[in-house]
Design goal:
34% helix; Alpha-D-Glucose-1,6-Bisphosphate, Chain A, domain 3; 7-stranded mixed β-sheet; 20% strand; alpha/beta; 5-stranded mixed β-sheet; TATA-Binding Protein
Length: 549
Amino acid sequence: MAIHPEAGKKSNPRELTNIARLMSDYFTIRPDMINPACHVSFGTSGHRGVSSKASFNEMHIQAISQAVAEYRLKENIRGPLYIGMDSHALSEAAFITALEVLCANGVETVVQRGLTYTPTPVVSHAILRHNHGKSNDDPSLSDGIIITPSHNPPMFGGFKYNPPTGGPAGTETTKWIQNRANELLMDDNRGVKRVVLGADRRHEHIHEEDYIAPYVADLRNIIDMDAIASSGIHLGVNPLGGSTLDFWNAIAEAYHLNMTNTQPYIDATFGFMTRDHDGKIRMDCSSPYAMASMIEMKNDFDLAFGNDPDGDRHGIVTRSGLMNPNHYLAVMIEYLYTTRERWPRNMKVGKTLVSSALIDRVCEGIGREVYEVPVGFKWFVDGLFSGLLGFGGEESAGASFLQFDGGVWSTDKDGIIPCLLAAEMTAKTGIDPAARHQAHVNKYGEPAYGRIETAADARVRKLLGSLTADKLRIDELAGEKVERVLTNAPGNGAPIGGLKICAPSGWFAVRPSGTEDIYKIYAESFLGSDHLAKIQTQAVEIVNDVTKE
């Protein structure tokens, strides 16, 4: 992957997103429904788009919100809907649009007091608190919406729906909402109900609550906050101008932590960010280029961390630098499953199939079974909810885990608790996460991991998404005998939407993107970078062979 010459550097102010134009486009551009690029499309993390490209406009959000209201009626979900937004500029506009449609449909909607920002995991946590003890068919169950494009650049907008299980909606649900929204758009939104909110944003169906205090208070049930506080370790946090800002300030105050917030303000242009690997502003807390300013400060703290704008991803910075997300997932797993004494011994470890095989080796070392699923955190929801899984994590720095007593915390990715867990393990043992990873390397070997993105039209993506093992004749991978060819995930048997080929010292997986005209190849080797390159070369050859005309 080529690295942009400006990666890791701040943008010229003249190159920042024109927020006024962005907002004007949201309200004035009407999507051309003849063009599929203008349709509502739910990928692994909801619908995302850009107002100037007619893929995230007022009409889209009206239609999606109406579809959600109708879905709730169909499923007899009549409890409050918890809604939050992150700090992207389009989130502000879409938030009000969604409220106007939900209110017109009589949906009792809960918002953060003062209409400020709310992280994705906090919405999930609020849903689960409300639904605790209720049966699956109780009509008073709640659900939620998060208006966010996650870590995407400043011009993006996004919309996610979380059903009563608290986590990302499954494929059946998102397909229903997507299809209904597109039906409405095709009919020029004539089926959309809407009220106009006044300047005070008040309405009988809008209820302001404090999301912050309950979430912060409950942290005692999942993290040893007293150990962190009493240790006095100096922590640095960078919310990357996102929705966790007020939450981190409240956490530091409530638990008397020695914590410095290095980015204590919001800026919709995200002009304080350093450019990502491709030269774009992207609030990816797992990227060393996007986190360059935090990495520069690594020696100022005993431990530092950051989150993306909606707070569902984590980035861990030790005095050794920014940790690779895969490495920290393995560290968390070993620490949690060896210190949470009240967790049942048969609790499995959830990982996505493109996460590092280091996790498999660590799990074998501690005697825990791996539960491998396709890409997307939605596949962990039921397992976390039922207690089948104590932990679910994906290679893109998203994870959640259970409380001390084995109770469910969040069934969506929570970027806050992995950061606090890093602080807990450092405070209680004096060993930071980077040192723990080095111990893994010494014991299990050092993985070399890479990802390749390649342009792909609809035909190629369809072919890759429908591959079956019988179409492949592969006996050897980079000099080693192939052990498994997977088109379904071993954990839950769900289709991968691509394939994964495994050998003793390496593997690769290929899957088409659900939202972009690309496919992705993930690969890993425990024999070094040269062996990784051989795996990647062979992977490209295999893809070219199965997709040729």
